[in-house]
Amino acid sequence: MKSEIIALAFGALLILLTFGDAHLVSYVGNLDSIFGSFFWKPLDVMYALASILVFLLYGKIKGGLRFNVVTILVFLSYLFALALISVDDISLVLNLHLTMVKGYWIVVEWFYPIYSSIAFFIFGRANARAFD
After folding, report:
1. CA pair distance 3, 60, nearest whole angstrom
2. DSSP bridge pairs for 31
3. ∠105-111-117 over CA atoms, to 5°?
4. Is 63 within 8 Å of 128 (Cβ atoms)?
5. Around Cβ 56, how many Cβ atoms within 10 Å?
6. Measured distance CA(104)–CA(120) in Å, rounded
7. For a surface tag, which of 3, 80, 82, 84 has the fewest beta carbons within 10 Å of its beta carbon?
């Protein structure tokens, strides 16, 4: 039951990260405005950090964190996908003023939730005791 709750939390974070900003259409997305514009910067950081913690927690619950080639590669690839969806926030923090084209966001907003979901469950399975 714990792993299902963690998976649900990860799914909620996927939605918040994917639709946290209105990249494609001004009236779709920007879930950061739920708590007001004052909180949008802390929320962008919180969503990303919480998703990393939930990702790792899922592996721990499924059988303990194991460090091997599969788990490390899956985790690093998830971090890469997270960086792709958060490039605008990273750019803002680093004061780089990057503006990505609409095509980038179309691809990333499909890629991130699909790939991250797959990586999440692979990570859990790779950490499961069945792979001892």
Report:
1. 10
2. none
3. 135
4. yes
5. 16
6. 23
7. 80
Residue 123 in contact with residue 52, Cβ under 8 Å? no
What region does 112 belong to: left with phi over 0, alpha with psi -120 to 50, or beta?
Answer: alpha
Task: Please tell me the distance from the alpha carbon of residue 62 to that of residue 45, in angstroms, as a whole number.
Answer: 26
- Judged by DSSP in three states, 22 sits in coil
Read off the pLDDT of residues 89-129 as tens digits, 9 standing for 90 and up.
777 777 787 787 888 888 888 899 999 999 999 999 988 85
Nearest to 109 by CA among 7, 44, 6, 16: 16
Give the span between the Cα atoms of 17 and 15, in whole angstroms.
5
**Cβ neighbours around 6 below 10 Å, total:** 20
Q: What angle do CA 18, 91, 21 make, to 5 degrees?
A: 25
From the list 76, 86, 91, the residue with the least C-alpha distance to 44 is: 86
